[in-house]
## 1
Amino acid sequence: MDLLPVTADYDAISERMRQVAAARYMEMIEGLRPHVSEALSDPAGIHDTEPGRIQAYVSLVKLQATLIKELGLLYRVQDRPLVEQEAGMPLDEVARLLDEAQAREDAAVAAAADAAAAATRAALEHRESVDLGVARERVARGLRALGH
């Protein structure tokens, strides 16, 4: 028997083989079911049965139990179920990310406050220059009115 390399389709092939093997096991178990139920149906009448038949019944019951066990092993029923966990991160990493986000937000707020202060200063300077211009114009009109 040659060993085959594990291909990229290994999981799909493995799953398909488990299904085929499980179907065969179930066929054998279902085929044995009437014989096993016959062997177990009348335990009081076991004294009238020949020893060879009793041995055959015991073998059938053992075979069925073995097949059921093999079926369970095939599907790994004894394995611990896989619990899909959400991708998580350590608490200190979360705290670091939150601190970085807070620092970015603080920097953005400070930049917005600086921009607002600069805009306010510019508006006040413009208003002051306009007010000075208006005042200069009034004084000039007043001086002209006095000079005439």
## 2
Amino acid sequence: MNIRRSTLEDAEAMLTFLASFWEAGCDTVTQMSSLPTVEQELEWIATRDGDARVLFVAEQEDRIVGMIEGTIPQSQEYAHGCEFGMSVLAPFRGQGIGRELILRLLDWAESKQLWRVELSVFSNNAPAIKLYTSMGFQEDGRRENAVRLRDGGLCDLVQMFKYTATAIDHLEVRG
């Protein structure tokens, strides 16, 4: 497995990756109303330049099997943290790919001297919640019945966070 920053050359492979989620009708990730065009995907990747947004992909067998995107908010009040979204194709889950993607994102957050890394996860995604918890993420709140599933059912949106080493060092000095 290879984890690396995404490049513009990944646009078509990313569309194939996204189409796999589209076709599976996965109830643990947000579904798009339609797949982007190649041009839209190129534009999206180009904005993830590593400054305030970053996109890492996991490759295995010459295809993208996972991705993680981190974004630092533009608002000054929240710019000490970032939020991320991650997905791994079903046949490749449980192999440590998600953990490696998160570790890469945490390294990026440290390089930006961020204090807080945040995510939102559907409450019906027990494997993801278990992974995040095992990596030191804590539940920070819950939006009850915030997600309508394809079958019409509802689930909570769980907010989770982790302090970076930069924050812990600062908070210990400050504390």
